[in-house]
Amino acid sequence: MDDLKVSDSVYGATHEAIARTLRFALEIVSDGIWDWDIRTDHVKRSPGWYSMLGYAVDSLPENVLTWHQVIHPEDFERVMRGFRAYLDGTHPVYAEEYRCRCRNGDYLWISDHGRFVEFDKEGRATRMIGAHRNIHERKLAELALQRKNQELLALNQALEDLVAARTEALRRANRALAEQAAQALRLSEIDPLTQIANRRCLERQLQVEWHRLQRHGHPCALLMFDLDHFKRINDGFGHQAGDRVLVAVAQAVRQDLRDVDCFARWGGEEFIVLLPETDAAAAGSLAERLRLNLRRIDVALPMPLTASFAVAQMVADEAPGDLVRRLDAALYQAKRQRDCIVVS
């Protein structure tokens, strides 16, 4: 029995020595240590812990509630989640960084690490030891760097948004300019009265078809007509009546043409139809149909409306200008007879 008492005494002394050695080691590597007896809820804090926060040694209640009260309210829930996760065994370590309230009311950033060191016979933890370390300067620098990075990210995002906005604005502006240019081109190639193509547009399309003939040999014909006695209409009924006749003629002729045909007002009461993939015979048939249709147009005039027509087929060794002159010469012959068709 005496030997057993001696053994227990030696064990107790050894245990106390180990605990003291552990506390000394913790004090060396930390700024403050805490020792929590889980069964009694008693928490012993080292003098360094009090000194770190500016409190007198042992001036605060030695329980867990004291710890709760010094944690910054904004950090409390996060710290408790980490602490409970360790107590529940759902996380292998307890390690948190948070702010503790000092005696003067300021807050100090600390790191807090702890672990179980004793267990009962059923394996339940009965004691936990932890260490606090002052990380205030490092944490402030870290947070400042984070803020700078966030500011930089925000600035980069703002610049990206600005570039995107400017790019989109430039795209819209370019599209608007392109649309305006296209509209200007369309307007520059449309006769404002009849709303069909004008001389400029016809000449451009004539060049296109002439080059197609050179490369591929596709046939192309031109049909030119002039309204008979149009001067009498203007002189006898006024230019508004003449304009009304020109518009009615343009509308009627356009209904008999294909989408690929280019119908243009050549000047005054003269019109030209460019007919891709069409030979002289087909162009002559179209001219006859148009000649008859023009007679039936209701222009509210006491006289019938007639027109003289000329037809010519494009040939490879003839320049577009020469073709138009040949066509014009044929029309001159037709106008000498009136209401007829001359094929050149």
TrEMBL record:
SMART domains: GGDEF, PAS. Residues 94-147 form the PAC domain. Its cofactor is Mg(2+). It holds the Pfam family PAS_3. CDD domains: GGDEF, PAS. Keywords: Coiled coil. Residues 218-344 form the GGDEF domain. Residues 138-179 form a coiled coil. GO terms for cellular component: plasma membrane. GO terms for molecular function: diguanylate cyclase activity. Its main location: membrane. The keyword Hydrolase does not apply. It is an enzyme of class 2 (transferase). Residues 18-90 form the PAS domain. It is found in: Cell inner membrane. One of its GO terms (biological process) is cell adhesion involved in single-species biofilm formation. Its EC number is 2.7.7.65. It catalyses: 2 GTP = 3',3'-c-di-GMP + 2 diphosphate. SUPFAM superfamilies: Nucleotide cyclase (SSF55073), PYP-like sensor domain (PAS domain) (SSF55785). This is diguanylate cyclase. The lineage of its organism: Bacteria, Pseudomonadati, Pseudomonadota, Gammaproteobacteria, Pseudomonadales.
